[in-house]
Every structure is written in C-alpha cells, then in structure tokens.
Specification:
Elements: H1 29-35, H2 40-57, E1 60-64, E2 74-78, H3 90-116, H4 120-123, H5 129-133, E3 157-162, E4 168-174, H6 181-194, H7 210-220, E5 232-235, H8 244-254, E6 257-259, E7 264-267, E8 270-275, E9 278-281, E10 284-287
Parallel strand pairs: 5-6, 5-10
Antiparallel strand pairs: 1-2, 3-4, 7-8, 8-9
Helix pairs in contact: 7-8
Length: 292
C-alpha cells in the first residue's frame, strides 16, 4: 500500500488526475484515496477477473491481419479497458454535452441542406461545391429524398480529446455506423463488479439507459405508416463482422429483432422480415452496414 502518485512526473502536459505541482485534483481525490488501499497485485487480480468475465460473455472484437502466417484470419480479443476510470465533473460534462448536441445538430442540418435544402451552404460560398460532389460519402441516389425530422445522422460517434492545455477538442466525427457504445456500458458494469470501491460515495451518471433512448429515437424516425408502435430491426452483416457483439447487444437492449439481408424482402416498396409465422412489416431499419 502506498501513494500511487509518489514521484509521478507530469512533465509539460495537462494531466487528468494531478495539477502541475503534483496535487490531486479535487474531483479525483476520492478515487485516489480508494487506489491508496489497493496494491498492484489487487489491480492485476481485478484485471484477470474482468478479462475472464468478458471472454465468458463473448464481449470481444475481431482483429484481422495480425497473424503473419494467415493474414486473413481473425483473432478474438477482449476490448481494452483501463481499470482506473476517467472522472469528468458535472460542470465540465454539461459544457461538453451542450457542444456535442450543437455539433450533431449542425451536421444534420448540413446534410439535410445538401440533399433536400437546395444546397444553400454551397450557394452561399461557405463550402466549395467540388468538395461535396467529390466526397466519397456524398450519395447522389439520396438527392431529393427527405428523411423524418431531418435526422440523417441518428447516432454520432464523436472522438473527443484534450489538448496540452486541458481544453476539450473534437478529433473527428463518425456518422456512418459508429461502434463502441456496448463496450462503454459493459465496461461500467464490469468495473463496478471488480473494483466497487472506486465508485463508493460518488454520484455517477448512469449509462445503461442507452438502449431505451436509441429505441425512442428510432421510433421517432418511423414513417407515419408505422403507427404508434413501429417495428424496428437492427441490420447486421453477420457473425463475422468485427462489431457483431455490439449488434447483438443493441438488439437485445432494445428488445428488437437482429436481422441479416437474407432475412428481409421487399414487395411493392414495403420491407418485411421473414418470421416463423410469415412475413412481418418493418418500419425502421437501424443499418449497421457500410453504404455499398
């Protein structure tokens, strides 16, 4: 047992846990005190328990190309997880959340303008026409096709980092089929099991309501023909996709069917899925496949 931060050097970068003079930041003090009761061996045991639990539950992802003898072979790995959680104070998170909501709103309006809004942002000279038309992500087939509530990006995976001064910066926006939220939820659950003392006395915002919120968002995007209880499905490429665990996780969390392309049929512009009792109309597809 001892102080984990003895002789800990911050050098010239912003450190999450300690100030430049080596003092633990106030919002990390309880966590630092809890770590002080643990030995390196305690953390090693917690790490082994976490890894074993993930493997037992199938919480893995596939990495291709790491096998020199067979580059096409996939290697199952547990998702990397830091046992020391990052603590973000509520006031910092409120500021960050407002910015992210604003950012996704702007991106949705940008896309809606390009496809059904007359490309006003191009006409006003804000964005060059050649940049949009030459982009791999631009889909001419969708031109003139409106979407409910203008929600072209229903789920956004935004990579946020800190710069050397501790300011939050956006590294990139992932708007197609962002993955990883299942690991966020499972990591939180695993950490509370293997190291519950790290959460003692803290009021931590919950993350396990994601499935319910996603289902609500998907249902709001349903066409009027879906009625009050539209049928939602999650479309996956199949078991060999590296994010297949997440596809299963999301479908389970929302209580909806997980389907592959072969499970769906189109008749007279209406999509249905095959079931044991015949075809059932589908109103909303959460598409977890690439555009092609």
């Amino acid at each position: 047992m001892g102080n984990w931060f003895d002789e800990y050097a911050t050098e010239d970068f912003h450190d999450e846990v300690v100030d430049a003079d080596g003092t633990v930041r106030p919002h990390y003090q309880r966590l630092a005190d809890a770590l002080g009761t643990l030995t390196p061996e305690d953390l090693e045991r917690a790490e082994r328990r976490r890894t074993a639990a993930f493997r037992t539950q199938g919480i893995t992802f596939t990495v291709y190309g790491d096998d020199e003898d067979d580059p096409g072979a996939g290697i199952e790995r547990t998702f990397p997880m830091d046992l020391v959680p990052r603590v973000i104070p509520s006031d910092e998170w409120a500021h960050l959340e407002r910015g992210l909501v604003q950012r996704v709103t702007a991106l949705n309006r940008f896309l809606d303008d390009l496809y059904v809004g007359g490309m006003q942002i191009i006409n006003d000279g804000v964005v060059p026409r050649w940049l949009v038309l030459s982009s791999e992500g631009f889909t001419p087939e969708a031109f003139g096709v409106p979407v409910p509530m203008g929600a072209r990006c229903l789920v956004a995976g935004i990579d946020v980092i800190r710069d050397g001064h501790g300011e939050y910066r956006v590294l990139e926006d992932n708007l197609r089929s962002p993955s990883g939220v299942s690991y966020v939820i499972e990591n939180r659950a695993a950490l509370t099991r293997v190291l519950p003392q790290l959460f003692a006395g803290e009021r931590v915002r919950r993350v396990d309501g994601y499935g319910r919120k996603l289902l609500e968002a998907l249902r709001r995007a349903s066409p009027p023909s879906g009625g009050e209880s539209p049928t939602v499905v999650v479309l996956t490429p199949g078991i060999y996709n590296s994010a297949y665990f997440e596809h299963v996780f999301l479908a389970t969390q929302m209580g909806v069917e997980l389907v592959e392309g072969r499970d769906l049929v189109v008749d007279d512009h209406v999509v249905s899925m095959r079931t044991t009792s015949g075809l059932k109309r589908v109103d909303v597809i959460y598409r977890r496949i690439d555009d092609p």
